[in-house]
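dumping this here so i dont lose it again. seq + smiles for adenosine-5'-diphosphate
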Amino acid sequence: MRVAVLAGGRSSEHEISLASAEAVRAGLERAGHEVLDVRIARDGAWSVDGEALSVTPGAGLLDADVAFPVLHGPYGEDGTVQGMLEVLDVPYVGAGVLASAVCMDKLVFKQVMAQAGVPQVEHAGVSDARWRTEREAVLGELAALGLPVFVKPVALGSSVGIVKASAAEALGPALDQAFAHDARAIVEAMATGLEVECAVMGDGEPVASRPGEIRVRTEWYDYEAKYTPGGMELVVPAGVPEAVAERVRALAVRTFRLAGVSGLARVDFFVDGDEVLVNELNTMPGFTETSVFGKLFEASGVPYEELLDRLVGFARERHARERAYRH
Ligand SMILES: Nc1ncnc2c1ncn2[C@@H]1O[C@H](COP(=O)(O)OP(=O)(O)O)[C@@H](O)[C@H]1O
Ligand SMILES: [Mg+2]
């Protein structure tokens, strides 16, 4: 296959995307595929070998059989680039427009999951407009969540913009900070226990990896823990009883289906004793060979190259299936 790997992007996770894409590129080549490098600059310009890329709607992308958007965060993982790939009419790896958008928005995602009874932390949404006009009322309502709380812009990743507020006085500044990134914020009661992650892949019949446990030196899994070498340790299998690990896997697959995702996802949990809460679903998790997603499948008997090979296959199957619908 000729695979167009999309790397970079407009989000603050640009560099992380470049690292993921580098590994994906090498893995695809080892699996026998031909790779086309599409670079998306921070300003959003697309290029190939330094030349600006022009595209024609409906005419595909550079004669590629499949596109692989290895992009994290806004303008990459949120349905925007997926929409562009739909318009170009090229099969692409990963979730489609709607599922990408739903999973990028922490509040909408939680609403979709809540409707199906998926267990999650208590939370509340706050808009910038309401915060500016009804500060005291908002703070009054948020008191019901107790302390500490986690305050987050609704649509970022890599822990950017997230503040753990341990005292009531910290809540206002935390919201101000969240609104520097987004017009909506989510405030969550603090979950206790372990952070457990499970990788899922498939198209139609998703399969879950063995769950792994994230151990950090910092107070929580912040940006520093994510990207400082040695800042986090992935322990596989997670230190939970087998029955709990099975619940995590089942809930990961259920979440994947409910969100309408296809291809791949990493579903993240908080586990405390018997309690398993879904935190979030990432439609394009970090994708280097040593990223959690790859390591979890490796520990489940699926090597990195095979993973990539299967993802390319799912993309083509989905495209063929969706093409058969009449509009
Ligand atoms: N409600 C919560 N309770 C406890 N820890 C939390 C909570 N929300 C976030 N965290 C901590 O913050 C980290 C990042 O939050 P997350 O919602 O996963 O955002 P991101 O999309 O940036 O990864 C989590 O991995 C966890 O360590
Ligand atoms: Mg996370």
